[in-house]
Design brief:
Chain lengths: 333, 299
């Protein structure tokens, strides 16, 4: 009480200590406890969300200690044997995680080469359409797959390309040999990339079209008056206008490397087996939950998470150089 | 998104050459056809009689004798009927719970409360560094949520993306003067949230709710991880079985009686899992084309 009373004393601004703004304005400074009481209603509102974060994010983060143990489910993590970095050492010599890492990178490269430019190209074509209605109609069709479940997409994929799928039925009825696509390891990553293109291209155009609309129409008009044909306008106006968002998304994509595959591959890895189909994400599932190598899988997951975090933060940092604030933190407010 | 002034070619633009126009036409035609083909054929097949499916050999492009036998069949088939109900329940309960928690949290951190910075940092970190698969599973198990429908709701109760989108809107989309004047008039925070903030944020709340509903309906990983009892499975997990049925891929956990169900049944299950998405799609599209997301991304 004495402290807050002392704070009421008015001091001229010149003498006001930097952080004591409340004090010289004549308002008593609040202690933490008083602040908590003042904001009790708000804190109560935030409480369920915080409880969720703690139980399902921060407790699991602590649960990563099993990566440093020889965890046995029936003993529990308290009594399981502490083995230090043994699990990580094992991972370094494990050929299957090496294969998973190679597969992850290969898949990421394929996706970056083929899936990344697809929406840009489609957006350019759509943007060149004169009829607004036609563009909207096409867009509303091609965006549908984005909202479909991977289970649905995998099922559609089997319906078309599977052993009994429509493509092989057509081939057979034409007297040709059916082609093994779904269970063919050599094609797996290509077909997964194709699925991703099918799912996300239409959705991707939304943002690129918005960027294209932001380009000043007067630039096009001036260029046309000066005699630039569509190709030159595209080269000198459209593409530079897209450069910012394209390079930004390319940078952010680097941060998603360790998450490559995910749900999609988890669902379809078994079509081709581990050698061609395992990615880092599925490694954790198949070795931990299916295989019972809890500690090894947790170590792999932890390693993957940390590398992912580093990549994301690095990519955000580079993106920030481009003047883009991704995380709307308190300061951005 | 698109607010093109008119449907007319600007005066300065030349007519594209025939070849170019034709090339564009072909690109768009192929794109639309590639998107439509699987969806249309699967829908047609699900509506076809088994004889027509046999005659076509697999997928039917157009149902010559349309009927709903396949749907009647699967909806009286205990497992699938139950799975649809489970999925609906999870979608409704999960979305409602998620919305309540996300909105309250977003409102809390949209005001300058004590510890706000810490809360936002914890929220963003959970997004950048998700709790690992194995540790999360162990937590769910130690809470005795395995083989419990709460395991499909609680581990994905809220997420940084939804909360931050809502918070940004509460801060910038709701006039501060309105909130302040209500406060001066003696409104409590609950009243302000219910009577001012929420009514002004219907659009963004609809987006978050729709996205959450789509995610819950589509989700299969929580069920794969936490529900061992396949009598409890939601539709996504049943579809996962049917998806690869008859493909003869090695080592799959398909019960023998499910190996080759008739084609029309498989396609009907696919459509069943897709229809709710198509049903809400117009709303989804409406909000996204209005730039809700790009507004949020602008940062």
């Amino acid at each position: 009480m004495t402290r807050s009373q002392a704070g009421v004393v008015w001091r001229p601004p010149s003498q006001a200590p930097g952080q004591d703004r409340e004090a010289w304005q004549g308002r008593p400074r609040k202690t933490l406890l008083q602040k908590l009481w003042r904001d009790r209603v708000m804190l109560l509102m935030v409480a369920p969300g915080m409880l969720y974060l703690i139980v399902f994010h921060y407790v699991p983060d602590l649960g990563n200690v099993i990566a440093f143990e020889n965890y046995l489910p029936f003993i529990g993590f308290i009594h399981s044997q502490w083995v230090g970095l043994d699990n990580f050492q094992y991972l370094l010599t494990d050929r299957s995680i090496l294969q998973a890492a190679v597969n992850t990178i290969e898949l990421w490269v394929l996706q970056t080469i083929f899936d990344f430019p697809a929406p840009i190209i489609l957006a350019l074509v759509l943007n060149s359409l004169v009829s607004d209605r036609l563009r909207r109609a096409i867009q509303s069709v091609v965006t549908v797959p984005h909202f479909l479940a991977w289970t649905v997409i995998a099922a559609l994929y089997n319906q078309v390309f599977g052993r009994l799928g429509s493509m092989n039925v057509m081939l057979t009825s034409a007297g040709l040999h059916p082609i093994d696509i779904v269970t063919n390891p050599a094609l797996f990553k290509w077909m997964m990339t194709a699925q991703l293109i099918w799912k996300e291209t239409g959705w991707g155009t939304v943002i690129y079209l918005a960027a294209l609309l932001n380009i000043d129409a007067q630039l096009y008009e001036a260029a046309a008056v000066d005699g630039a044909n569509w190709l030159r306008r595209m080269w000198h106006i459209t593409l530079p206008g897209l450069m910012f968002i394209v390079s930004l998304f390319l940078i952010l994509r680097v941060g998603l490397l360790t998450a490559t595959g995910g749900e999609q591959i988890l669902l379809q890895r078994q079509n081709v087996g581990a050698t061609a189909g395992e990615v880092l994400y599925t490694y954790v599932y198949f070795h931990g939950l299916v295989g019972g190598q809890w500690s090894v899988a947790a170590a792999a997951g932890l390693l993957n998470g940390v590398i992912g975090l580093v990549l994301i933060l690095a990519s955000y940092r580079v993106a920030r150089r481009f003047g883009f604030n991704i995380a709307p933190g308190p300061r951005a407010a | 998104m698109i607010e093109a002034p008119s449907n007319e070619r600007p005066v300065w633009a030349e007519r594209p050459s025939r070849t170019l126009a034709f090339a564009k036409f072909i690109v768009l035609l192929i794109t639309v056809a590639l998107v439509m083909y699987p969806l249309v054929t699967v829908l047609s097949t699900s509506l076809s009689s088994e004889a027509d499916v046999q005659a076509a050999g697999g997928l039917v492009l157009f149902p010559h004798h349309p009927n709903f036998n396949a749907y009647r069949n699967i909806l009286t088939h205990g497992i699938i009927e139950h799975a649809v109900l489970v999925s609906l329940f999870i979608t409704v309960a999960g979305t409602a719970a998620s919305l309540v928690v996300s909105v309250m949290m977003a409102y809390g951190i949209s005001r300058p409360i004590v510890g706000r910075r810490l809360i936002i940092i914890l929220l963003l970190f959970s997004f950048l560094f998700p709790g690992g698969l194995i540790p999360t599973y162990l937590v769910v198990r130690s809470l005795h949520l395995l083989n419990n429908y709460m395991s499909l709701v609680l581990p994905t109760l809220t997420n940084a993306f939804s909360v931050i989108i809502l918070q940004q809107f509460f801060m910038h989309g709701v006039p501060e003067e309105l909130v302040d004047s209500a406060r001066i008039d003696g409104a409590s925070d609950w009243t302000i949230l219910a009577r001012i903030t929420l009514p002004l944020s219907k659009g963004v709340i609809a987006v978050v709710a729709l996205l959450s509903a789509v995610a819950h309906w589509n989700a299969y990983i929580p069920a794969l991880l936490y529900l061992n009892d396949n009598a409890m499975w939601p539709l996504s997990m049943i579809l996962r079985l049917y998806a690869s049925a008859g493909q003869g891929s090695p080592g799959q956990d398909i019960p023998p009686d499910l190996v080759a169900p008739p084609q029309s049944i498989v396609t009907a299950v696919i459509i069943l899992a897709t229809v709710p998405i198509l049903f809400v799609y117009p709303w989804l599209q409406k909000y996204f084309t209005r730039g809700v997301l790009s507004g949020a991304l602008r940062g």
